[in-house]
Amino acid sequence: MGQTWTVASTDETAQVGQHASPFGSAPPPQPPPAGDAARGARMPRWLPRAMVLALTLIACFQLGSWAFHQLTGLLINILIAFFLALAVEPAVSWMAAHGVRRGVATALVFLAVVIASTGFVVLMSSMLAGQIVNMVEEFPEYLDSVINWINATFRTELSRVDIQDSLIHSDWLQKYVQNSASGVLDVSAQVLGGLFRLLTILLFSFYFAADGPRLRRALCSVLPPARQAEVLRAWEIAVDKTGGYLYSRGLMALISGIAHYVLLQALEVPYAPVLAVWVGLVSQFIPTIGTYLAGALPMLIGFTVDPWYALWVLIFVVIYQQFENYMLQPKLTAKSVDIHPAVAFGSVIAGTALLGAVGALIAIPAVATLQAFLGAYVKRYDVTDDPRVHGRRQRGSGAALKRVRQALNGPRGRVTQPDEEAQGPAAR
Hints:
By secondary structure, the chain is mainly alpha-helical. It has helices spanning 10-18, 34-41, 46-70, 72-97, 102-154, 160-168, 171-182, 184-210, 212-220, 225-266, 272-285, 290-305, 307-332, 341-355, 357-375, 397-409, 418-423. It is built from 17 helices and no strands.
């Protein structure tokens, strides 16, 4: 018989493959289409853009940080100039209101400030120079008196000639002279840098004060009307607080100078007017430690005349400082700079930590301005009439505490009643 051959269809072949014996080999997996593989291995389109943006931001941050560190000195000078312009703003505005051109008024105010500062520096320099010359001329006599006291007290045999020879031939003195000679150039560079910085501050402050209205218009032109009112209000508060602070300090410096001048003149201490001006300015415009720095120089000069004069100056400085802190300063600064003494002290410390001496000078008017500006937007309520607000205990608090103690002690023991005491132990 002949064999009959049949051809299986494709579906049947697939079914045979599915029901193949487990001992047989499984069919190989089919590879994905070529188009899907290319799309799966391709980089997302947003990733290059994100990488470029991140690198750009990092570069901009590094560049901005470098520029900020390079321009820190200039920014501090501009900040000082701005506060100086705020301080002279009331005087300039007053002169401008009386018919003087604003530029001319600003020039006159700054000319007066420069003349007063230069005169003070010249007087102080002449006083110090004369005092140093006198101390150098009288130094051998002081040295002899000190040596005689040491010999009489400790029974030694020191002589001025031996001490001078040992000092002249000492290695310490030679090294000090060499270091001082090499440091002359550094001091000269610092002096020139200080003069350039002073001129920069005066120039910026002159522009800020002379072009104050134009500067405010330029600033308000880029702000909406609501923000313009807030900026102008903040500017006005800053002018009032800064000018009031400096003028009140100037008045207190004048009073302090006059009081110390009377004392120094009565003690016949040389250079009494210059020392009085020194005490007035330093004690008022250098916060926290200004009083001690101001009193140190008159004490030193008075000590050269008579050691007891230094003690009298110290006693007067301490007494006047208490009078100024508790009587004079609250009345003069109540309207101009109304901030708590603790807040003022903390602001001075923070300003010193941030900007050094400059921060110490501008810390108090800056905090006063911020406090006054925030006070216009902070909602306040009437304080309840509670004795605890005034630091006193509330009435009845002792009785309530006593009842609480009795309630707590009740389960521990029973209180004996008067009737039981009268009946005695038999009734119990």
